[in-house]
Design a protein that fits this description.
Length: 268
């Protein structure tokens, strides 16, 4: 714990040294922790800035609003339409780079126009291990990553969030809805809506950590293996199948490897 708190003090010193900072906020574990730390260090010189778009479920926006309201943090919401960004909808392997380059360019311009000296985002040390082309866009734009600057890993961020009493400390990991698509398959508003509805349905059924990956007209569901027995209960299984068919999927499959992040990168 001493090492953990030393990292936290380093984070606080780093944030304080910025003088002011706008935090790209998604309401996830990492950005919520970073935003709270920035607000504790800088007060009104720290602000949340987030994008509202088809790529994020409505519940994420609602949770972001509640978080900022609870802690008295100023928030700016920027309307985004990634589907109109050239090359994004075609969903190439560098889709995340295309998206982040466009979005963070706009976020940085807004933050600068409001007088903030820096724009920061919430990636942590664990994010260095997967295929993440979006990280290149952040580097090119000079976006700060304070959690990585402090050497913090996800588990440590959760532990510190719990100490601070943040409601996000045990929130399941999440990623934008575009990550549910096979590279090369066109991303559409309709299919994004199908994925959002399917995942919200599973959340309502008590599956906290899950993904619904879309393969044409098939839904491939990823849940932790320990949830398999409940999922495969005859009554619930049939109910899930019927609901996802109503949403628009022709076929519904359970991935036998279970939940894992970045499974769409396994074919690269």
């Amino acid at each position: 714990m001493d090492i953990l708190h030393e990292k936290y003090r380093h984070l606080q010193d780093y944030l304080t040294s910025l003088g002011s900072v706008a935090v790209a906020f998604s309401s996830g574990v990492d950005s919520a922790f970073l935003l709270r730390a920035a607000h504790d260090c800088l007060g009104d010189k720290a602000m949340a800035i987030r994008a509202s778009s088809y790529l994020f479920p409505a519940r994420e926006g609602q949770e972001a609003d509640e978080f900022c309201g609870t802690y008295g943090i100023r928030q700016l919401v920027l309307e985004a339409d990634e589907l109109s960004v050239p090359g994004f909808s075609e969903n190439p392997p560098d889709r995340c780079y295309i998206c982040k380059k466009d979005l963070f360019t706009r976020l940085k311009e807004v933050a600068s126009s409001l007088g903030f000296s820096a724009l920061a985002e919430g990636s942590n040390m664990d994010d260095l291990g997967d295929y993440r082309p979006g990280m290149r866009a952040l580097k090119e734009l000079g976006i700060l990553s304070p959690l990585r600057e402090a050497g913090l890993y996800k588990a440590e961020i959760r532990a510190l969030s719990r100490e601070l009493g943040l409601p996000t400390w045990d929130k399941p990991s999440y990623a934008c809805l575009a990550s549910r698509f096979v590279y090369g398959d066109t991303i559409t508003k309709k299919k994004l809506g199908m994925v959002e509805k399917a995942e919200q349905y599973l959340i309502d059924k008590g599956f906290r950590q899950m993904r619904v990956r879309i393969h044409g007209n098939m839904a491939r569901i990823e849940i932790p293996r320990e949830d398999f027995p409940r999922f495969l209960d005859d009554a619930l299984r049939e109910e899930i199948h019927a609901r996802l068919k109503d949403i628009g999927f022709s076929y519904v499959a359970l991935d036998l490897l279970g939940y894992r992040t970045g499974s769409m990168n396994e074919t690269l």
